[in-house]
Amino acid sequence: MAQFLQQLINGLSIGSVYALMAVGYSLVYSIMNFSNFAHGGVIMLGAYFGFFALTILKFPFVPSFLVATLGTTALAILVERIAYKPLRERKAPFLYFIISAMGASILLENIVIATIGPTFRTYPQIFDRSPITWGPLAIGRLDLLMFFISAFCLIALILFIEKTRIGKAIQAAAYNIKACALMGVNTDRIILIVFGLGGFLAGVAGVFFGMKYTVYPQIGNITTKSFIAAVFGGLGSLPGAVLGSVILGTLETLVAGYLSSQYRDLIAFVILIGVLIFRPSGIMGRSMEDKA
Amino acid sequence: MDWFYIQGILMLAGINLIAVLGLSLLTGFTGLFSFGHAGFMAIGAYIGALMTVSPTTTPAGLGLPFFVGVIAGGLGAGIVSYFIGRITLNLKGDYFCIATLGFGEAIRLILNNVQIFGGSRGWPGVPYKSTLPAIILVDVVAVLFLANLVRSRHGRNMVAVREEELAAQITGINVFKYKMIALVISAVYAGVAGVFFAHYMTFLQPKMFSLTKSTELTIIVIFGGLGSISGSVLGALILTALPEVLRAFEIWRLVFYGAAVILIMISRPKGLMGGMELSPGGIRKARAERKARLEAQREMKQAQEGEIRNA
Questions:
Q1: For a surface tag, which of A53, A283, B51, B262 has the fewest beta carbons within 10 Å of its beta carbon?
Q2: Is residue B274 scored above 70 in pLDDT?
């Protein structure tokens, strides 16, 4: 029982980071109806921004955190302006958006490989490594912080979308972007805000990911899994993305703990395929209709 | 630049071309995007190698001749793609891409755990059987088959599915069937490419068939131009040979790929050849279209001038 609870705790902590990443995919999907694969690259650069702020600029933790998140916010908006805006203006079919996103993802990953290099880098130690123990259970300090900050960011995001005027506009755009524009909402700005929000959360996720594991350009494996979590929860649904991430994170740690860590990566794809076969709209997603 | 080196590049380009041609049918003519064709290449490569590897190096090897491996690899990939198609081809929009991505990665991860193939450490000892003439022969057959298929009734139905799925369905085209045909043929092509790849590298590792490889194949199709066989041929030759010529810039290769894809999407989504063919008929068609366009422009101008005069 204690082992099971321990696995559950580990699962929740990795699940919360997945959630930060997955929400970025879902936010963009809800407005623009395509999978923004470049999001993975933005998360990866977030980890690097944080790393260099800590090591080269020798900033303390909080300013480094800000550097990383502001950097990724700007980067996400930049990607939108360069890779998607011309397509939006031309009203290109969604397939072009996916291809452009793939291009941006390859570009970001390989710029890092070509300039910074493919080596693994380890964040300097910021938090005490000794875990907090409670009976037979142990929780890493970093895991605890990760969980609380992720939860805080996600709750703040949901409140922002539910309670503010801009949030209402985002909801409206997700429902029907054309009608929303006709009602006088500046949809171009809404899209900018959505990419900015996704970018900000990508920065948070990147820094935490870098601190918990290491920083390297092919972080894409992890971001692909968070994308699967978003599909699992239902693309376009924020609570779905969070739920999908938590379930995926927990299942992964359980599989790694009880079966074999070899199969940990496979479980995500098995889930993905299962979801696509039986319920493509995910746990909480709207069912997709062909708008022809 | 000795002949051996050039031959190596040509062989790699030829192998890529086989896979790209299949993907060209799926993406360029039927309008389905796949991020998992490296998975079909992997299936072809492993099955093909299983057929030809001699039993003395790998206990499971059958030691059969190379052409048996090619056929088995192509068939194996085709059969797997049929079952994958059965469950994924009904998915709409993004979700088909996502499903292929999932299957491609799942195939790689499963191979990582199959111990008779050496798992993630890799599988050495595949015999060196791929020759340049054999690859060129397969390329020629592949191009001819595709060119005829595309011009047939079936090919036109596929283009109709690409252009407007709903309308195609209403006019009585069995959309699912044509998507399936395109998928299976593209998977067979990828499988055959995989067999040649295995017998060129003489070493297999699941890592070779990652998402990056799938994306690279899709990029070549887009670069060459959607809906153009000659575009795919040019794309495969240029994009495989270019990084070899610019060896010093090896690490910048994929940066260039990424930038090129974005640039093509935002400025010339039709790619290099976009819907045109480099054949006598294709050139005639292109010239006729150009002439018609110029004429239309002239007429428009005359009409405008007329309007100005009338005013």
A1: A283
A2: no
